[in-house]
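Quick one: structure for this chain?
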Amino acid sequence: MSGLKILDCTLRDGGLTNNFFFEDSFVKDLYRTNVEAGVAYMEMGYRASKDLFKESDFGKWKFCDEEALREIVGENPTGMKLSVMADVGRTNYERDILPKKESVLDMIRIATYSRTIDEAIDAVEFCHSLGYETTVNIMAISNDDPKTVARALEKLAASSVDVIYLVDSFGSFYPHQAAALARQYVDIAFPAGKQVGIHAHNNQQLAFANTIEGMRNGASMLDVTVNGLGRGAGNCSAELLVGYLMGQGVSCREEPLIRFIEKHMLALKEAGVVWGYDIPYLLTGQRNQHPSKAIEFIRECRTQYTDFLRELAL
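Got it. Here's what it folds into:
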């Protein structure tokens, strides 16, 4: 299991639950926790365009200005690397991505759909020219036919990207599907010298299982969030994966994560932040649908699950 890297995206995916309004104490403790736990990369949030998103509507981790980053990590005198996500169409790369020598960031993660893969590759080449590591996370591939996925992977294999991500956006995959897709990604990525990553959602309570299957079939960059904090049903829980990897002899520590959950995640839940497995997310995941309808259902405090099931069929 050499070469495995854990990437924590608690602030980025978790920020979708509270519009990125995290207290600095939360972020500083998460940073220290990840260092202690042996996390290789910490995603600090998005680098979103302020032309498209109103600053007053979001916390600072929607934008990850350099000043805000340095208030938390200083010069980052640790072995853990830092990243942000920059969505195609939602980031002004030439204005908002500084040269690496001027930034505490190490990696830019580029989120795209298969239909915008060419724009993602342009962003990759630009970010590489500035000195960054890069990933491309192809979203919603459960809606793509195999030929579309293969074409996107082949284009990425010919680019400068470092890591190509398998993303289960809707939490719709089963472990055998995650395994088969990971093999497809690896078969195209590895000959070109690329790594493969996996980012799973927990709509069917399979994010952990799918992450393990991805890893067993060649994915080496493994995305997690502490306590599964993330949009809708959330993600593969860091404490689950770290506990598993410790049992496999990987150098990482679970106790800092448990301590962080005790200190911060219970408080988030008490404050009314909602995430995690629930029946509406199960139903959208089973039907390979975006969880937006389920999020709205839960926000309205509805419990008519049978009605919701029928609504999804309309």
